[in-house]
Amino acid sequence: MGEVETRLREQARQIFAAALQAVDPKEAVRRYLHRQGDDLVVEGKRYHLPEYAGVYVVGAGKAGAAMGVAVEEIVGEWLCGGIVTVKYGHTDRVQKITLVEAGHPVPDEAGVSGARQMVELLQARGERDLVICLISGGGSALLPAPVPQITLSEKQEVTRLLLRCGANINEINAVRKHISQVKGGQLARLAAPATLLTLILSDVIGDPLDVIASGPTVPDQSTFQDCFRIFEKYQILDEVPPSIRAYLQQGVEGKIPETPKAGDPVFAKTQNVIIGSNILAVKAAAAQAEILGLRPLILSTFVEGETREIARMHAAMAKEVLHSGHPIPPPACLISGGETTVTIRGDGLGGRNQEFVLAAALDIAGWPNVVILSGGTDGTDGPTDAAGAIADGETVRRAEHLGLDPLHFLQRNDSYHFFSPLGDLLITGPTNTNVMDVRLVLIGKESTPPP
User: Fold this and answer.
1) 337 and 292 in a common domain
2) Do 214 and 343 belong together in one domain?
3) Which residues are 196's β-sheet partners?
4) C-beta atoms surrounding 146 within 10 Å
5) C-alpha dist (Å) from residue 182 to 139, 177, 189, 204, 308
6) Of 302, 334, 418, 451, which sits 20 to 30 A from 207 (CA to CA)?
7) 216, exposed or middle or buried, with CB in 10 Å at 0-12, 13-18, 19+?
């Protein structure tokens, strides 16, 4: 590995760390939720705490514990308690809030228990209560409350089907909403007539409120009919559990009420505030790249599609920068956000970020002065302990020297076992945040000064 690549690798890690710091959940809450005497102030709206019989916290998501710590600190003595469900290992030191650790991305019985406790807490609230709901990435899987006609195992099966076929988060959540008791605005229905304030850390492209964590506190735009369109699009209708098909068909026929839509009175006393998103992370990455002497260029935070194709596009841009100095001359840092999808073809272990880097490594093989990093801001990529991976133009050569065939690993979706022996997995541990992915393409030149 050359001196330039070594330096670029270290810079890439520093830039990714800066992106994570910018979306720290505690700081995100503190930026938006303020205590002024006995008032809570959020985006100019005041909640006079003495007017409420009690203040309670509910929520779900990978950042829920860290968000809860900040809310406890700000609300202080007025807080009565609460229930927040988080992914296993994504905990923090809360005082009055009960944390329930549960499964993600496939929901489990622990998640069902947490959802049940949350429903019971909400049903006991009255019009003089204030409920603060904390929503972050992973909230859909971590708040499983299937309708009585559907079992958790059946809901797990349809989730696996959708993940396996490459459905995007909007499509997965549309189905989840329509077989749930809480998603798609139905948590707001449970909380009414209490006042409801929802703080949201977005993990969805474009930050659509009705899609983030399946929009439990906002009007739902998707329909029962949309669910069937999704199944037909991916040709999985015959694989969907019969109970789910039957329930959704009842919805299409009007025998089951739709999720609450805009204008429903259950939303009369609700406020939904996005406190963090992918663009914040990407902007922070750009700022850090500039500090390190690189020319930053934000490509987009709306990147989605098949991981391997997106990887080829990023690799092609790196080559263009080296070859012609366009769209910016080196030393440069190309940055993108969003969330790609992987169509599973093999039986290996990995995630979309690791697969992105492996696919890109094949395309930049032999090209000098290029480093590519991709990482999930939650610190976990797929069912692995890695956030992502890092590679350069020598990665393929190094792998082949160890007897590793990169194309074979890519075909098996086994990127984890490709990068592990190379020491090129990006390991951060749980970050307690989640605003999708950050991808970095660093292009240097011999004269690039060290940081």
Assistant:
1) yes
2) no
3) 131, 270
4) 23
5) 11, 8, 8, 19, 35
6) 334
7) buried
Q: What is the pLDDT of residue 447?
A: 42
Distance of alpha carbon 187 from alpha carbon 195, whole angstroms: 12
Place of tokens 């030149």: 445
- 353: number of Cβ within 10 Å: 29
Within a domain: 243 = no
> Which string of DSSP letters, residue by residue, matches 50-78?
GG-SEEEEEEESTTHHHHHHHHHHHHGGG
Same domain, 439 and 354: yes
Using one digit for the tens of pLDDT, what is the confidence trace for 273-323? 999 999 999 999 999 999 999 999 999 999 999 999 999 999 999 999 999
Q: What is the CATH number of the domain that holds 98?
A: 3.40.50.10180
Query: CA angle 355-61-95, nearest 5°?
Result: 135
pLDDT (mean) for 214-234: 96
- Rounded Cα distance, 130 and 107, in Å: 28
**Is 78 in the same domain as 41?**
yes
Per residue in 131-157, pLDDT tens?
Answer: 999 999 889 889 999 999 999 999 889
Higher-pLDDT residue of 373 and 450 is 373
Q: Considering the domain boundaries, does residue 414 fall inside one?
A: yes
Estimate the crossing angle of helix 242-252 against helix 224-233, to 10 degrees: 130
pTM: 0.84
361-388 pLDDT, tens digit per residue, is 999 999 999 999 999 999 999 999 999 9
Query: Which of 215, 106, 118, 219 shows the shortest CA–CA distance to 170?
Result: 215
Q: How many domains does the chain have?
A: 2
Q: Which residues contact 43 (CB under 8 A, 6 or more apart)?
A: 32, 271, 273
User: Please, what sign has the CA dihedral across residues 221, 225, 231, 237?
Assistant: positive
- Reference 353, options 299, 258, 284, 428; nearest CA is 428
Place of tokens 């228990």: 113
Cis ω for the linkage preceding 105 (within 30 of 0): yes
333's enclosing H/E stretch is: strand 332-338
Q: What is the pLDDT of residues 410-429, one digit of tens each?
A: 999 999 999 999 999 999 99
Let me know if residue 385 belongs to a domain.
yes
